Amino acid sequence: MEFLSDNIAAVSLIALVIAIVITIWRDTNLGTMALALSFVIGVLITGGKVKDVVSGFPTSLLLMLVGVTYFFGIAQTNGTLDKITKYAVKSVKGNVAMLPVVLFFVAFIVSSVGPGQISTSALFAAPVMALAMEVGIPPLLMALVVGNGAQAGAMSPLAPNGVVGKGVLEGMGIFGWDISIWMNMLFSHIVVAAIAYFICGGMKLIRKQKAGGAEFEAMKNIQVEPFTGKQKITLVAIAILILLVIFLKLDLGFTSFILGTILILAQVGNEKDTFKAMPWGAIIMVTGVSVLVNLMSDIGGMELFADIMAKTSTPRTVTLVVGFFSAIISAYASTSGVIMPAFLPMAPMLLEKIGASPDALKGLVSAIVVAGHLTDMSPLSTTGAVFISAAPGNVDRKPLYRGMIYWGFSMSVFGAILVWLMFGILNISV
Questions:
Q1: 126 alpha carbon, distance to own chain's centre
Q2: Could you tell me the CA-to-CA distances from 372 to 144, 223, 304 in Å, in that order?
Q3: What is the rounded distance in angstroms from the CA atom of residue 119 to the CA atom of residue 245?
Q4: Long-range contacts of 277-281 (CB under 8 A, 24+ apart)
Q5: Is pTM beyond 0.85 here?
Q6: What tens digit of pLDDT does each residue of 208-240 get?
Q7: 197: nearest Cα among 275, 145, 149, 272
Q8: Which of 35, 144, 293, 369 has the highest CB neighbour count under 10 A?
C-alpha cells in the first residue's frame, strides 16, 4: 500500500486507462467504475477523506444534464420532437444527405453566439438524433457532424470556452488572439466533420439520394399533421429556452427545470413517461468520470502527463507532441477546466526549454486549443455524452457509444497530426 501511495499519480492514470478498457470490453458503465476507483484511490490508498473526494462531484453539470434531458424528455414523449423532425425533412424537400451539413453550420452559429458547445449540443442533441432515426441518417454520422459544428463555435469570444481561453492568454500577457483561434477552430472542425460525414455513411446517403426511389420520394412528399395545442405550447417553451440561454445568459439546467415544471403543471406532458425517457446511465457516466478526473488533478495525475510531454518534445515535433497530449487528456477531461488552464501557461516555458523560436507560440497555443476540442466527441467528454444521452429509445446505444469512443480517441492521433501540419509545418494559423 505504501508503494501505491508513493506513486499515486501513476496509479491514477493506470487505473483510468484500465477502467476505460474494461467498459469497452464488458460494456459496463464507466461512471460507476470511476466513482468506485475514486474512493479506492482517494480514501483507501491515500488515506484521504470521503468529503474531499465528493467535493469533486460536478453538481452544476449534473443539474444541466438532468434539467435538459427532463425538458426534452417532455418534448419527446408528447410527440413534439417527432413533428419537428418531419417538418425538417419537409423543409429540405427530401434532400436528406444535406441535413447534417446544414445542421453543422446552424450549430456553429448558435454555439458562437454565446451558449458554447455544451449548451448548444444539449439544445440540439435530442431533436437532431430523433431526426436521424426518422429519415435514415446513421446516428453516429449525425452526432459527429452536428457535435463538431457546436465544437467549432466553442472558442468564440462570446462563448464560455472562448472567455476562458482569452482570460488565460491575457493573464500570460497575450492579447488579440481570440478571433484567430476561433477561426482556426472552425476550419479544423470543418475538416474533421467532413471526414466523419464520409466515413460514417455520407457517401451512401448521397448515392441513395441520386438514385431516388420510393424512400426519398416519400420524404419529398411527406405529410405532417399540424401541431396539437400541447405541442405548440412545447414549441413555445423550446423557443423561450433558447432565447433565455442565448440572450439573457440564464443557466441552462435551471431554466430547463423551470420550463419543464410549467409544462408538467399545464398537463402538456406526462411526468412518469418523462422520467422513464431520461438517460440516467449516461448521466451517471459523465458525472462519475468527472469525480475521478478531479481527483487525478489534485494528486498529480495531470502534472505527470505534463512532465512526460516536456521530455518528449523537440522544436520540430513540439506541436505534434503537445497536440497529442492535449487531445488524449481532453478525451476524458475538461478542455476549458483542465487543458487550457494547465497547458497554455506552460507553452512559452516549453518552447524555451526545447530551444524553439518564440514565434512558434501562436501556433502552439492554437494546437493546444484545437486538439483539446477535437476529442470532445468522445462519450467520456460532456459534448459526446450529451449526444448519447439524447439518442431516442429506438437507437442502440452500444454501437453508438463504441463508435464515438473510437472516434474520440482516434482524434488524439489524427487531431495531433492535423494541428502539427496546420500550425507547426504549414503555419496556416489565421
A1: 14
A2: 16, 43, 17
A3: 8
A4: 277/69, 277/73, 277/76, 277/77, 277/393, 278/66, 278/69, 278/70, 278/73, 279/69, 279/388, 279/389, 279/390, 279/391, 281/29, 281/31
A5: no
A6: 777 665 555 655 666 778 999 999 999 999 889
A7: 145
A8: 369
Instruction: Note the Cα 93 to chain centre separation in Å.
Output: 30
C-alpha 139/C-alpha 158 separation (Å) is 30
How far is CA 308 from each of CA 360, 372, 410, rounded to the nearest angstrom?
20, 17, 20
What are the structural domain ranges in the chain? Answer: 1-55+281-298
Q: Return the pLDDT at 403.
A: 92
Residue among 62, 194, 198 nearest 122 (CA) = 62
Residue-by-residue DSSP string for 407-421? HHHHHHHHHHHHHII
Q: Identify the segments of the chain with pLDDT beneath 50.
A: none
Q: State whether residue 426 is helix, strand or coil.
A: coil
- Angstrom distance (rounded) from CA 104 to CA 274: 28
Cα(20)–Cα(27) distance, rounded to whole angstroms? 10
The per-residue pLDDT for 89 is 65
Phi, psi angles (nearest 5°) of residue 138: -55, 130
d(CA 15, CA 332): 13
Quick one: pLDDT at residue 219? 59
- Rounded-to-integer distance, Cα 430 and Cα 428, Å: 6
Instruction: Write down how long the chain is.
Output: 430
- Interhelix angle 116-135/160-171, nearest 10 degrees: 150
- Cα–Cα distances in angstroms (integers) from residue 389 to residues 270, 279, 344, 345, in the given order: 20, 5, 31, 34
Instruction: Quickly list DSSP for 115-147.
Output: THHHHHHHHHHHHHHHHHHHHT--HHHHHHHHH
> How many Å apart are CA 377 and CA 404, to the nearest integer?
7
pLDDT tens figures, 174-210: 998 989 999 999 999 999 999 999 999 998 888 877 7
Backbone angles phi, psi at 306, to 5 degrees: -65, -40
- Burial class from Cβ neighbours inside 10 Å (0-12, 13-18, 19+) for residue 25 reads exposed
CB 349 within 8 A of CB 306: no
